[in-house]
Every structure is written in structure tokens, then in C-alpha cells.
Specification:
- The chain is of the alpha/beta class.
- The protein has one domain: 3-Layer(aba) Sandwich (Rossmann fold), CATH 3.40.50.150.
- It is 34% helix and 22% strand.
- It is built from 9 helices and 9 strands.
- The longest helix has 14 residues.
- Bound molecules: S-adenosylmethionine.
- S-adenosylmethionine binds next to helix 3 and strand 2.
- The site of S-adenosylmethionine has 20 residues, from helix 3 and strand 2.
Length: 227
């Protein structure tokens, strides 16, 4: 697999400490959770289910739905084919809406991203939370780990192609992924009516917004729909 900005971030870690941290804070027995972009393994949906949540998951890729749908692991997780931009749910349905592992970055362009955020705001209950992570070109450029020996090829390519100046990057499947500074994501969410509660790095070791904005390659965001 060729090195790209996504392999660069995700090669070593898939289950981040920050995900568990956030689940611990927001998800418990009977919490209603919508997991968007649940994927072929259902990893993020199952994590919430294992905490006792009532989980509904949606996915746009039909092959992934079949794969996850066929597993016995899926027990108690509702699964549907749907698009984040047109959520097939009534208003005010869920306590938590989550898009794990940069799934929200498949939504490109300011207009669609705000539309996606508005959709998530619509289906979450007042006072409920919207959680996702997304690539940050500032962190992808400045994070010290990008300059470790194992990373230099991907980092070199990212910098010399001046990709950090673009609104998108290319993932290992050749797909375009959004990348945006923390300030931009926060502003888009504010336009959609969501208030930022926290922004954290992948290890969960810092939630200092300035440090995260500068050095986190793919921060995790927690937003809240005002009560
Ligand atoms: C990186 S995977 C994450 C899989 C899983 N949630 C996890 O944490 O391991 C992102 C998923 O989002 C799905 N996806 C992309 N765009 C979507 C959309 N507009 N609506 C719903 N799902 C989407 C992709 O098909 C992919 O399965």
C-alpha cells in the first residue's frame, strides 16, 4: 500500500484512547446512539453496544452493510443503508450521534459539510452530543510524529505536493478526503447550530484547543446541541 496522509496517521493505531474516553463520558446503559458510517466491521457501533447503548447504525456502502450484516457480532445493532446527508430519522431521536474514524471527512465541500452537520443536529436530542474526528492540515504538517523516521516518505510527499494548502487530501484508496483546521470545523458546526464542548488529540492526552489545533493530525470533536 502506498504511503499517504491517512496511512501516515492511522498506520499504528486504530482503537484510540480518546474514543474510549468519550464513550465513557457520554455513553452508558440505554443511551441511544446513532453510528454513522459503521463500515464492514461495525467497530465503532459495537464499541457503543458493548457499553449497553441502544445502537442504530447506518452505512452508505452496500457491500459493507452486507459484510457487517452477516456477522453474528452484530447482535442488537440495528443496521440500515443511508446517507449522512439525508438521515432517515425523525427529529430529536438520539442522545449521541457519532461518526468514527474520519468518516465525516468523506463529505467534501463547505455546503455539504454544513448540511451534514445540520442533519446530525436535527436527529440528536436537545442537549445531546455529536462526535466525530477529522483531518487537520495544520497538525498533519506540524505534528512531531510526522517527522519520525518511519513517516518521512508520507510527510515529504504531503509537504512537497503542498497538499496541506488544499481543502482535501487523497487516501490510500485514491479517494478524496476533507481536511480542515479546527477553527473551520468549529465555525461550520456553529453555523449548523452545534456548540463545541471539546476538541482532543487521538491519544486523549490533551484537550487544550490551541495545542490540538496546532499539533493534532486528526482531532476528535465533541459538539452539543444546545438544550
Ligand atoms: C473510515 S470508515 C469507519 C468505519 C467504522 N465506523 C470504524 O470506526 O471502524 C468510514 C465509513 O463511512 C462510510 N461513509 C462514507 N460516506 C458516507 C455517507 N455519506 N453516509 C454514510 N456513510 C458514509 C464509508 O463507506 C465507510 O464505511
Amino acid at each position: 500500500m502506498p504511503e499517504t496522509a491517512t496511512t501516515h496517521v492511522y498506520r499504528h493505531i486504530i482503537d484510540y484512547a480518546v474514543e474510549d474516553q468519550i464513550l465513557q463520558e457520554l455513553v452508558g446503559a440505554q443511551t441511544s446512539v446513532l453510528d454513522i458510517g459503521t463500515g464492514a466491521t461495525g467497530r465503532s457501533a459495537l464499541k457503543a453496544r458493548d457499553r449497553g447503548a441502544v445502537v442504530t447504525s447506518i452505512e452508505i456502502n452496500v457491500e459493507a452493510i452486507f459484510e457487517f450484516g452477516d456477522t453474528t457480532e452484530r447482535q442488537d445493532v440495528m443496521l440500515a443503508a443511508a446517507d449522512l446527508l439525508r438521515l432517515p430519522f425523525a427529529d430529536d431521536c438520539f442522545d449521541v450521534v457519532q461518526v468514527a474514524l474520519h468518516g465525516f471527512d468523506y463529505i467534501l465541500g463547505c455546503t455539504d459539510r454544513i448540511r451534514g452537520l445540520q442533519e446530525m443536529r436535527r436527529v440528536v436530542k436537545p442537549g445531546g452530543h455529536v462526535v466525530f474526528n477529522g483531518f487537520n492540515p495544520v497538525g498533519l504538517t506540524l505534528a512531531p510524529s510526522g517527522y519520525k523516521r518511519a513517516m518521512w516518505k508520507a510527510q515529504f510527499k504531503y509537504l512537497t505536493s503542498r497538499r496541506f494548502l488544499q481543502p482535501t487530501m487523497i487516501d490510500f484508496n485514491g479517494l478524496e478526503l476533507n481536511q480542515a483546521p479546527v477553527r473551520v470545523v468549529t465555525n461550520q458546526a456553529a453555523i449548523a447550530g452545534l456548540r463545541r464542548v471539546s476538541v482532543r488529540n487521538l491519544s486523549g492526552s490533551t484537550s487544550d484547543p490551541r495545542k490540538v489545533a496546532l499539533f493534532s493530525k486528526a482531532p476528535y470533536y465533541v459538539f452539543q446541541r444546545p438544550a
